[in-house]
Amino acid sequence: MGGAVYRVYFGYDHLRHVSNSVMDFKQIAKDVYALAASDDPIAPLLNEAITVIEEALDTHGQDRTSISFNGGKDCTVLLYVYAAILAKRAPTHVGPIHSVYIACPSPFSDLEDFINEAATAYNLDLFRCTPPEEKAKDAMRHGLEIYKARYPDITAILIGTRRTDPHGATLSHRNMTSPGWPQYERINPIINWDYADIWTFLKKFNVPYCCLYDQGYTSLGSTHNTYPNPALLCIAEKDSSPKYSPAFKLKDGNLERCGRGSQPTTAAAPVVSVTNASKE
């Protein structure tokens, strides 16, 4: 590691709060499997995700399987589905869920708060790693090296990557990590879901998600390069602060990452009226 200092937190005891904040896993399983058995348009994608996860668990077992959880909308959907599957497979008790969070530089405090809340609600055995600034460009690989050293028995990681994500176009449901990386099987259960599918699922079950999405953010990263999506900018009253519609109101999923990179200029941004947005 070249002597680099990492802030690493692992275990779940420090993330537990009160017992009544834990999700009802049995109810989650009942609801998710009922939707999968229905004629709802999202059912085929949900069944695909369930099958991929169940087959991965058959291969690796829960004790050797982890889930990558950074608090984003995609991995929040994945965690909810995974919780349903674990509850169905072990209806009397779902033990701590192995999970890993490798933070980006300067994460949003609201996102960190949500991750803590989710760790409690889903009983996550959450390993956290925050690489130093000089390792930011290679943070994921270095973080996984530490994770592999701490938890060598983990052989598979569930990931909420979708086809439209960077580097997602060529992935399948199951891929090994690249040469030079710690060896894991990457499991991509929701690779074929699109932006609208994610929000349909979250809203259908009222799944808790990070509050930043209600402030116009549609894709979350570092505070250095993540802004509300200009496609969700509303026409506000004169001299008032800009207002943004929530992420689930974005109609064109191709614009999902328009709030990433350099700060957008509001003058060139597409706008919707506050009145119209509130009626959608």
Please characterize this protein's 3D structure:
Helices cover 31% and strands 13% of the residues. The N terminus and C terminus are likely disordered. The protein has 280 residues and is of the alpha/beta class. The chain starts with 6 loop residues before the first strand and ends with a helix. It folds into two domains: 189 residues, Rossmann fold; 69 residues, no CATH class.
Largest beta-sheet characterization: 7 strands, mixed
Quote the beta fraction: 5-15%
Globally, the shape reads globular
Q: What is the count of DSSP helices, taking H or I runs of 4+ residues?
A: 7
The H/E string reads EHHEHEHEHEEEHEEEH
Helix content: 25-40%
Low-confidence stretches: 1-20, 266-280
What would the CATH topology of the largest domain be?
A: Rossmann fold
Helix/strand-derived class? alpha/beta
Strands of the widest sheet, in order across it, are 1-4-3-2-5-7-6
Q: Tell me the Rg in angstroms.
A: 19 Å
CATH class category name of the largest domain: Alpha Beta
Distance between the termini: 51 Å
Mean pLDDT: 86
* Strand elements, count: 10
* Structural domains: how many: 2
The CATH homology group name of the largest domain: HUPs
Indicate the CATH architecture of the largest domain. 3-Layer(aba) Sandwich
